[in-house]
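call fold(seq) -> tokens
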Amino acid sequence: MPQPPVFLADHAELQRDVILLSGAEGRHAAAVRRLQPGERADVGDGAGLIAECVVTAQSGRGLELAVRARREVPRPDPLITVVQAIPKGDRGELAVEEMTEVGVDRIMPWAAARCVPVWRAERGARSLTRWRVTAREAAKQSRRAWIPEITEPVSAADVAQVITKAACAIVLEPGAVQSLGHLSPPESGDLVVIVGPEGGITDEENAAFHMAGATPRSLGPTVLRTSTAGTVAAAVLLSRSGRW
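ret:
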């Protein structure tokens, strides 16, 4: 049986007995999904709260849904964080989409030394907005109760600080002696994966990360693009951490 579609609304709206799905969400539900009275739909706030609803009416203001039940989905643990070196073109949005669908909880755009794109001023703001919109839409498509956090861009020094607070941190390095597939991750805490740019992580960046506590791991004998490596690494960690 097909699962009901998922839409997003403010937390306060989800406390009502009848939710009004308006704006872009309401238009998508009515015009694209063509939901009719009597059909099921779930509405979430992107932070763990899900309202299980039935469509009751269409109005000029949007779609009305009666709440039948509510449930709270705990924040995942261990938490998967991917530090993603900023790729060229639309590969960043592709990476965010895939990582969201697979289950990554936090994505940190990293302005690595060898990144080709430079996020500055308005260009950087637009790029960050696209990443966040992509995560939101991918979370709906994959029926996630929690929308991944897309942080502000980080520097190598910021990444080193994140590593020091993590339960486990790894740097993806082609040719590393140890494979990520052989890692036994901790059962709780923040698991951090660092994905370098196409040109590779510099010696200085690597030294800082290793000094902070990250260990090098490979993803097998092949070399993946920066836009796909995070998804593959997250899948390995999710399968070995008990979340899958």
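The first strand starts at residue 6 and ends at 8.
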